[in-house]
Design brief:
Layout (H helix, E strand, L loop, with lengths): L16 E6 L11 E6 L4 E6 L7 H12 L4 E8 L5 H19 L6 E8 L6 H13 L6 H7 L8 E9 L2 E10 L12 E6 L5 H14 L15 E6 L11 H22 L7 E9 L2 H12 L2 H8 L6 H9 L11 E4 L2 E5 L2 E2 L5 H8 L3 E7 L5 E8 L3 H8 L4
Parallel strand pairs: 4-5, 8-9, 10-14
Antiparallel strand pairs: 1-2, 2-4, 3-9, 6-7, 7-8, 10-15, 11-12, 11-14, 12-13
Helix pairs in contact: 1-2, 2-3, 5-6, 7-9
């Protein structure tokens, strides 16, 4: 069950974006599993992809197509990752793009394919092709909710959000959706996510903003330490509102985009497979940002820390041990202080005189647990978000293909 996360009841349409969600029967028999997303001509698109060397075929094809043309359509399927499928997988991904081009009249390289689901199985391209005419007929600006539900795999809650921001020359809309629950770990993006705005944004500005936003959101989460083969984040700016993002408006727009992406990233952690706790690891006093991230990620990825969180066991020695094994240069433990919620655990490398087991226990019983670490060796800081490891995580992944 997701931790303090509810599916949205309403999402705002974005001028210049239409979506459709249909049933193709790729793996699921009783739900939609194919999404077609149409972008208005002239839209600017920025994207980031997994750094996993065994990246999925659609990731390879999407990268290729982004270099050749401006995207008009995104095609997303759930239930089959089309990863670990070799050359036939590339042929399949390219064929789905050609099939979209055939029914829409665009060029095949104006289509970006995305897949999520089981690795190592051939994508049934004939089922995708058969469903495309229906998808084209059902394109609608108000189908964000349907699309967000259709891209889910082991997710238990739909993840999507909308935001409106007033800039110098008018109001713009940003709407985003994401899927992700397991195989989540920072290394670009750790899921599939699609964010669209009707603002007019220069291509180079959009790509620069995406990189900054990714680091503060999707690259700052982890569920299980596994970076997927299929991770992708796409941000599209249609320009259909006529409101241009320039000058002082760039920072306002960047903050709004970051807020949307941070919500989606945290929603993934809150819905981590089997999650019962939402955990934030704040690192202060590091020498630089990268050092702070390494410390935070080491603690957040520790199975022993995560299982203690699930058991509500204030076994803070596990946090201490994770910090100690972080690959840091000349770590002076006598400078390190650690808090669990409002409770001080370690003060300057020594057990806090004020600590009592019952105080730690009270903090660990909460559904949302903040951990703060002060390294005492600099001024850099960061936050990493994670969840606990429960019995259900093992069960979900053990039975994933059954």
């Amino acid at each position: 069950m997701a931790v303090n996360l509810q599916a949205p009841n309403e999402l705002l349409a974005v001028k210049g974006v239409r979506l459709a969600a249909v049933h193709a029967g790729i793996r699921y028999k009783d739900r939609n599993d194919l999404v077609l997303m149409e972008l208005a001509e002239g839209s600017q698109v920025a994207a980031a992809f997994t750094l996993n060397a065994f990246c999925a075929a659609p990731v390879t094809v999407a990268r290729e197509h982004l270099k050749l043309a401006t995207p008009r359509y995104l095609l997303i399927n759930a239930g089959n990752a089309n990863a670990g499928t070799g050359y036939p997988g590339l042929v399949a991904a390219r064929q789905t793009c050609a099939d979209v081009a055939k029914v829409t009249g665009c060029l095949a390289n104006q289509v970006l394919p995305f897949s999520t689901g089981v690795i190592g199985q051939a994508l049934p391209v004939e089922k995708v092709a058969a469903a495309l005419p229906k998808a084209l007929a059902e394109l609608d600006a108000n189908h964000w909710l349907l699309a967000a539900r259709a891209i889910m795999t082991t997710d238990t809650v739909m993840k999507a959000v909308s935001k409106q921001v007033t800039l110098s020359s008018g109001t713009i809309t940003i709407t985003g959706m994401a899927k992700g629950s397991g195989m989540i770990h920072p290394n670009m993006a750790t899921m599939l996510a699609y964010v669209a705005t009707d603002a007019k944004v220069e291509s180079s500005t959009l790509q620069d903003l995406l990189q900054d936003v990714v680091e503060a959101s999707f690259n700052s989460i982890t569920v299980d330490g596994d970076t997927s083969t299929n991770d992708a984040l796409v941000v599209a700016a249609t320009g259909q509102s006529g409101v241009e993002v320039s000058g002082s408006d760039v920072s306002i727009f960047a903050d709004a985009l970051r807020e949307v992406c941070l919500y989606l990233a945290q929603a993934i952690v809150r819905d981590g497979e089997g999650a019962t706790k939402f955990i934030s690891i704040s690192v202060d006093g590091a020498r630089d940002k990268e050092e702070a991230r390494v410390i935070g990620q080491t603690v957040a990825s520790s199975p022993l820390v995560k299982t203690a969180m699930f058991a509500s066991d204030p076994n803070w020695g596990r946090i201490l041990a994770a910090i100690g094994r972080s690959p840091l240069e000349a770590l002076d433990v006598s400078l390190v202080s650690i808090w669990l919620g409002q409770t001080l655990l370690i003060e300057k490398g020594e057990p806090a005189a004020t600590y009592r087991e019952e105080l730690g226990q009270a903090e660990m019983k909460k559904a949302e647990i903040p951990v703060r670490i002060d390294m005492g060796r600099g001024s850099a800081s960061t936050v990493i978000w994670t969840c606990d490891f429960s019995y259900d995580y093992v069960k979900i992944n053990a039975e994933y293909r059954s």
